[in-house]
Design a protein that fits this description.
about 350 residues; alpha/beta; Glucose Oxidase, domain 1; Rossmann fold; 2 domains; ten-stranded mixed sheet; seven-stranded mixed barrel; about 30% strand
Length: about 350
């Protein structure tokens, strides 16, 4: 099945269709992870995106029943150099191609992913379309590609109801902007009693359960679009210890008067070096984001940068001085790995215990 990839700038690649037949339009991004494609496919942060894996062989250990970060894949399409047709892993229950077909995800293989990566690095993230339609004409898709936008993705991915996961430890309110299952698992491993709230929950609803702490999850899209959530966070600050992850990190900064900006091509992969400035130690982290907090926008009397990206110097963590609040831009739960920064969940539990004991 022949397929084409057409970029917003007019560049076209020809390859072989994988997954479902048809067409999909989305924001094209690249991920440098050598493994973890199942986690990437099912990460709600990828909503509205066509993801290209830079590692040349994808699917070699198939799809299993345990490693998904949510109940379905959220990305619009998948681009790989070569799709493995015969996976080998004792946990594998189906091939990646069968998984894409069953979830109606369109993909393409057999294109020069190195060339595509260079284009995205030089020109920045752009929209595009994957299609197996043999009659596709560039002029028919040009306006669709140019006008495509990811609109209110948090509303699409968040839970629609309040969910409780019982535990014997600290009571945590987890605000779901598109939460990965591994964040929930990291809290349950620490015996937390978790109540998951939809992104539409008010501060009054969240505080009504009297949590020991609040976790603001990862999620998709431009953080500045989350005006309601920013207002809610502003009302929560100082009331309880807060731990922000990825989108949650950005929303806290905006609630505190900071600013965010879109990166040229984002940080997506499991090999991003991040330095913990307090420990004077660098960790390897997993990341999946296209926006960052601008350091010059932070009030130095109220917030200090705790982590920085060693590749480009961008802000990777913030600790707030006037409230028991801290946040990170990377994935501390990091499934499938690296697991270097899971200590941050222990730090959050310690913060909750200290705050509860002092209140």
């Amino acid at each position: 099945m022949k397929a084409i990839l057409l970029l917003e700038d007019g560049t076209m690649f020809e390859g072989e269709g994988i997954g479902a037949s048809g067409s999909c339009v989305g924001e094209i991004v690249f991920n440098t992870g050598m493994t973890g494609y199942q986690e990437i496919l099912t990460d709600p942060t990828c909503t509205g995106q066509i993801v290209m894996m830079t590692y040349p062989l994808i699917g070699n250990y198939g799809i299993n029943q345990e490693d998904s970060e949510s109940s379905k894949p959220w990305l619009k399409g998948l681009i790989v150099r070569e799709l493995c047709k015969e996976p080998s892993n004792w946990r594998s229950s189906q091939t990646l191609n069968d998984y894409l077909v069953s979830n109606n995800v369109v993909g393409i293989q057999g294109i020069d992913t190195r060339a595509l990566t260079r284009i995205l690095r030089e020109k920045g993230t752009m929209n595009g379309v994957i299609s197996t339609d043999p009659d596709l004409k560039q002029e028919d898709w040009r306006s669709i590609i140019e006008e495509y936008d990811i609109v209110k993705p948090v509303d699409e991915v968040t839970t629609k109801e309040i969910i409780n996961i019982r535990g014997s430890g600290m009571k945590v309110a987890l605000i779901d902007y598109g939460v990965r299952a591994s964040i929930i698992n990291s809290l349950t491993e620490r015996n937390c009693d978790i109540t998951i709230f939809p992104a539409t929950a008010t501060a009054e609803q969240i505080l009504a359960i009297n949590p020991d702490g609040i976790v603001l999850s990862n999620g998709p899209g431009d953080p500045k679009d989350c005006t309601f959530q920013i207002k809610v966070i502003r009302e929560l600050l100082g009331k309880k210890p807060i731990f922000g992850i990825c989108l949650g990190h950005q929303l806290i900064a905006l609630a505190c008067g900071g600013e965010t900006a879109k990166l040229k091509y984002g940080h997506r992969g499991s090999n991003q070096p991040v330095k913990d400035l307090k420990q004077d130690r660098t960790y390897i982290t997993a990341q999946n984001h296209g926006y960052v907090v601008l350091p010059e926008s932070l009030d130095a009397s109220k917030a200090e940068i705790s982590h920085i990206n060693m590749n480009d110097g961008t802000v990777e963590g913030i600790r707030y001085l006037d409230t028991p609040t801290f946040s990170v831009q990377f994935q501390p739960e990091a499934s499938p790995g690296p697991m270097d920064t899971r200590y941050l969940f222990d730090s959050f539990v310690s913060t909750m215990e200290a705050h509860k004991g002092g209140s």
